[in-house]
Amino acid sequence: MSYSLTVNGETHEVDLPGDVPLLWVLRDSLGLTGTKFGCGVAACGACTVHVGGVAQRSCQLPLEVVDGEVITIEGLGTPDAMAAIQRAWVAHGVAQCGYCQSGQIMQAADLLANNPDPSDEEIDDAMWGNLCRCGTYPRIRAAIHDAAKMMQAEG
To answer: Where do the 2Fe-2S ferredoxin-type domain residues begin and end (predicted)?
Structure first.
């Protein structure tokens, strides 16, 4: 079956079964490899993307139920104009191995879109399902706080 998807502002037609997870559509059909496969059961957050403005786990989201524009890490900012959360991530040296980072950043961007000044507890609650084997959780929290300040200053 053919499906039409808007991903990072571009419309794509894909001819795939409706039960194919969005993760594999993004990676294998569209070549957007920033979204990572982690666990395959929506438990680790490495595959997090935004669908219709909401952070979702793409490894368990069938193509046939995708409703709204999909934003991946590639669409969050550009090399010349990174999003505030991406700039804060770099400033705090959050990434070590880096594998989970696209999912972490996409989850954090969703948090900041809905809560422009989160507390430590609110950050922990929003980010709890995004796992980092390197344990950079204190840096993640600090980067989210700094990104919130940057976004407030940018207006």
So the answer is: 1-76
Sequence-ordered list of residues with C-beta below 8 angstroms from that of 98, at least 6 positions apart, any chain:
none
- pLDDT tier for residue 79 given thresholds of 50, 70 and 90: confident
Q: Mind listing the pLDDT tens digit for each residue in 101-125? A: 999 999 999 999 999 999 999 999 9
- Domain range 2-74, CATH class: alpha beta
The predicted model scores a pTM of 0.95
CB contact at 8 A, 75 and 10? no
Q: Three-state SS for 18?
A: coil
The structural domains of the chain, with segments of one domain joined by +, span 2-74, 77-154
Burial class (CB in 10 A: 0-12, 13-18, 19+), 45: buried
